[in-house]
Design a protein that fits this description.
single chain, 322 residues, alpha/beta, TIM Barrel, eight-stranded parallel sheet, two-stranded antiparallel ribbon, globular
Length: 322
Amino acid sequence: MKTRITELLNIKYPIMQGGLQHLGTPELASAVSNAGGLGTINATIYPAIPEFRDAIRKMKLLTSNPFCVNVSMLPTMMPGELTPEYFKVIVEEGVAVVETAGRDPKEFVPMLKAAGIKLIHKVAAVKYAKKAEEAGADMVTIVGVECAGHPGMDDITTMILGNKVAKTVKIPVFIGGGIADGKGLVAALALGGDGIVMGTRFVATQECIIHPNFKQWMVEASENDTILIQRSIKNMIRAMKNEAALKCLEMEQQGATLQELLTIISGKKSKACVMEGDLQGSIFATGQVMGLIDEIKPAKQVIEDVISEAESVLARLEAIRS
């Protein structure tokens, strides 16, 4: 299957694994890359630069195929932020692809271009996709409100955003949010996208380091088992509907401050719970696409199943056209 994205990134299939915060490890990312997709490791897992460099080198040992590093940035540069150091290591280690999220990546574009690194910028609205193109991004990722993690504040669906972004920018587009199978891939291509990004689907794989309790919950859960929280602090997230998320929503409705909410939503607490298997104690980002997941599979099988189903759908559509 060839698209502008497979040609640009030299990958077999137009399927990207999302950054996945604490879960974007070399073990999962290399399995995705080895299966023909674009695996992604998450820089924020590594608060020390030597650890980050080691993770990149581990990826190189585990796969000879292209892979991506996700670098999520705060809205403004903060004292002690490691983003410049992350990019320095990325360049020194010869990483092929970077995905940024958060603020405008334009300050790092010349550095990445000079090193021949392809830049994907993740956005949640059409205007930001256009801005990323103007800044020099090679590709954009657009995600709708169905997605796990941080959708836009406007509650616009993937069907609308994917379609509109693909019509608005000239650079290739990854579409994500509510996609977990071959039907979703074909739909994304029909909207004008050049590939898909899947996050939640890759959490429910054998290679993902999350505790088995969460994987089992995802298989048993439905599309109704997520909730949007943190709207009051303009950092909205779609998360598992559990005790922690419901408590967060209740606190927001009572006017809680960010400091008060951090007792529930802190990343440190979330990381501990997903590793220990505590389903109720913290916020866990997950998408509505759980309603389409009914089995824990190896990442390779996930990709093969997506492509196989996509080919079947395309054949059915061709038969209809004929």
